Amino acid sequence: MNIEYLNPLAESFITVLKQHCSAKSLFQSTWFLKDSYPEDQTFDIAILGVNEDRFKPEYEGCALAPNKVRKEFYALIKPRNDLKIIDLGNIQAGNSINDTHFALKQVLNPLLAQKTVVLIIGGSQDLMAAQYAAYQGNCQNMHVLLVDAKVDVHTHENNNEDNYLPRIIAHEPGYLFNITQAGYQSYYVEPETYDAFERMNFDMMRLGSLRGNMQEIEPFCRNANMLGFSMQAIRAADAPAQLKPSPNGFGGEEACQLCRYAGMSNDVMSAGFYDLNPNADINNITSALLAQMLWYFVEGFANRRNDYPVAESNDYITYRTNSKNLTHEVVFYKSKLSNRWWMEVPYPRELSAQEGKFLVPCSYKDYQTALNDELPDKWMKTFQKL
């Protein structure tokens, strides 16, 4: 791996980290990059900071977030399972924002190819577009989970260069299959944006539908290849270090729960956390929260289960729903080991002979919907995409 774009952590900073960490902390499980990448070793998780905050003037200060979060993160107690973690240091801001984006893609792409899960600490939210672009050649049907209070499409504007979402959607070559926007707040979203998501069969999960019902986000986490999380999706009381703090949003516990779900997903290969501005923090509350969110992702990763349904396995219970009101039989699979659900969606007739069936992570609620003679919304959107 070429480390020309990386700036390893200074020995003095590592010494400061060590002084605040116990013998059972995450610090003790982490290998810190120095002069070269150890090609003879493999790592489960890589930590990567990006010192970029020039997206908009009001983001100034976000470049300080990676090291602020590290001080909180490495002091946390490591999960029971032994994991090999490498800290790659930081990508410094390039001569332009595009240079920083290019560097992030160049660093991420080989890590994704070798199946190392990368936790990115930004930096501003525009880096999500570079995070997505790094999957080129590594993923054919990309599922993206974005957590943000706003949906950054801005359909009324002619120039979308300052929005990350249009750049993901319009990326060439195209390998995007689905986007799930979770935690959006309706008073921030234009009607045209709803219409655009509906036309593209993307998923939108409103904050109010998830509060107190976080288990409904689990299938979307399980189905994702990438997580992009803006700290602006969290209410100001729990995360004050934001561009425009809002009284509403996810609570800290809910954000941690979502991150654990994402960590448990066998398919999530990168998770980026953005829009934390330490200059606006209060007693490092937001940095501490993000550190705990990272911890929950790591803890979820340590509990990953390869429980994807396979043919002729006794580890699953098969449920078939059919009625006169449904045009298709809907087949569900439930894992006996994890109690997680999947739903079978048929390919179009012209592809079915070659492709077989498409399995989509779902919830017990989707099964109940089918029992009530209704096709689950997730089934319909997936069928239309296929």
Tell me what the structure shows.
- The chain is built from 13 helices and 14 strands.
- It is of the alpha/beta class.
- The chain folds into 2 domains: about 5-300, Arginase, Chain A; about 315-385, no CATH class.
- The strands form 2 sheets. Strands 1, 2, 3, 4, 5, 6, 7, 8, 9 and 10 form a 10-stranded mixed β-sheet that branches. The protein has a 4-stranded antiparallel β-sheet with strand order 11-12-13-14.
- Helix 2 crosses helix 10, helix 3 packs parallel to helix 4 (about 125-135) and helix 9 packs parallel to helix 10 (about 285-300).
- The longest helix has 18 residues, at about 285-300.
- Mean pLDDT is about 90; it is low at about 155-160.
- Annotation field: number of helices: 13
Number of domains: 2
- Oligomeric state of the chains in view: single chain
Please write the CATH class name of the largest domain: Alpha Beta
**What are the low-pLDDT stretches, counting only 5+ consecutive residues below 50?**
155-161
Which CATH architecture of the largest domain would you pick? 3-Layer(aba) Sandwich
Rg of Cα set: 21 Å
Q: What's the N-to-C terminus distance?
A: 36 Å
List the topology elements.
Elements: E1 6-7, H1 11-19, E2 30-32, E3 45-51, H2 65-73, E4 85-92, H3 97-113, E5 117-121, H4 127-133, E6 142-147, H5 164-169, E7 176-184, H6 191-199, E8 203-206, H7 207-210, H8 218-223, E9 226-230, H9 252-264, E10 270-274, H10 285-302, E11 316-321, E12 330-335, E13 341-346, H11 349-355, E14 357-362, H12 364-371, H13 377-385
Parallel strand pairs: 2-4, 3-4, 3-5, 5-10, 6-7, 6-9, 7-8, 9-10
Antiparallel strand pairs: 1-4, 11-12, 12-13, 13-14
